[in-house]
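Exercise 7b. Backbone tokens:
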């Protein structure tokens, strides 16, 4: 019984690990910045204001952002992933809240040279992989000590697993990392655009 429960949880979380839950970081459309004047000082101001406006949506749990994030989680989960999270008592809103709780950031500096700019930031955040790590760690504990769930039904064992994961999620401190975001200026449209590398970093910000 314990081995079957364990396999159910592990297999489902393998699938959730592959969810592109923030593959677009829905509320952060960093593909384009408009209205930039050509001077470095004004370019820096435009980029800084844009980053602050967009990252504040995450930090302040902007309702549109949170709704988009919750919807993204639901849309990108396959059936097994949804079954696993549902069985553990998790909604997409629960996961979204965990990801953005204690989120913080700073725009440390922006270097503008001609038509290129680099924004240096410090990001404090949690990652979706933290949830997977907790599930696997608890699953391993159950493997080593099947008595933990021996007298439970499958539903009870999944709820127990969900409770343990929640406890450890609450105790997981956010990681702090430095990030550099590249932008380039298009004189023909007077527009600053994020590079492909910057788009990729934003797409995987919480993974």
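Sequence design result:
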């Amino acid at each position: 019984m314990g081995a079957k429960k364990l396999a159910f949880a592990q297999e489902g979380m393998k699938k959730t690990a592959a969810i592109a839950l923030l593959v677009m970081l829905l509320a952060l459309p960093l593909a384009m910045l408009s209205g930039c004047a050509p001077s470095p000082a004004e370019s820096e101001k435009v980029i800084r204001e844009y980053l602050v406006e967009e990252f504040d949506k995450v930090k302040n749990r902007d309702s549109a952002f949170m709704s988009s994030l919750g919807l993204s989680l639901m849309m990108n989960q396959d059936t097994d992933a949804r079954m696993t999270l549902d069985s553990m008592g998790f909604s997409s809103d629960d996961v979204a809240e965990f990801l953005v709780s204690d989120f913080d950031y700073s725009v440390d500096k922006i270097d503008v040279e001609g038509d290129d700019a680099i924004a240096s930031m410090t990001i404090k955040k949690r990652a979706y992989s933290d949830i997977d790590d907790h599930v696997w760690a608890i699953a391993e504990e159950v493997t080593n000590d099947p008595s933990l769930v021996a007298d439970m039904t499958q539903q009870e064992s999944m709820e127990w697993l969900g409770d343990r994961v929640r406890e450890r999620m609450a105790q997981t401190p956010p990681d702090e990392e430095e990030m550099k975001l590249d932008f380039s200026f298009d004189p023909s449209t007077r527009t600053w655009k994020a590079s492909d590398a910057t788009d990729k970093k934003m797409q995987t910000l919480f993974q």
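Instructor comment: Helices lie at 2-17, 40-59, 63-76, 79-87, 92-100, 128-144, 154-170, 196-203. The longest strand covers residues 175-186.
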